[in-house]
Structure formats: C-alpha cells, structure tokens
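Hey, can you fold this one?
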Amino acid sequence: MATSIKTFSARYVIRALILSSIFMVPVGAMAFNNSDGMNVSKQGAGFVLYVSLQRNAMGG
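Sure. Predicted structure:
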C-alpha cells in the first residue's frame, strides 16, 4: 500500500513540474530575450543592487 501511495504522489509531482515548466519556460525566454543578456543596468535600483551584491561577494 505504501508503494502505491508514493507512486501516486510522484505522478502528481511530475505532472505539476511539467505543467509549470510549460508556462514558465516561455515567460523566462521572453524575459531573457528582452534583457541585454548578462549586462546589469547601471542606474537606479539596479545599480544599488549590483553594488550591494558585489560588496557581499567580496566579504565586506
């Protein structure tokens, strides 16, 4: 009985992952296409975020 419950729930997890990827992959591809690749905007909140991430990465 326990094996069938694990198989049953695994099927739903796989279905949920497939369904979410069907909807999320095109949105991510469109967002990446509209962005400038790996370039970070150096103005406004984007610049503040960039500087704070760089400082945290350097340990300071």
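Residues 2-57 form one domain. Let me know if you want another pass with a different chain boundary.
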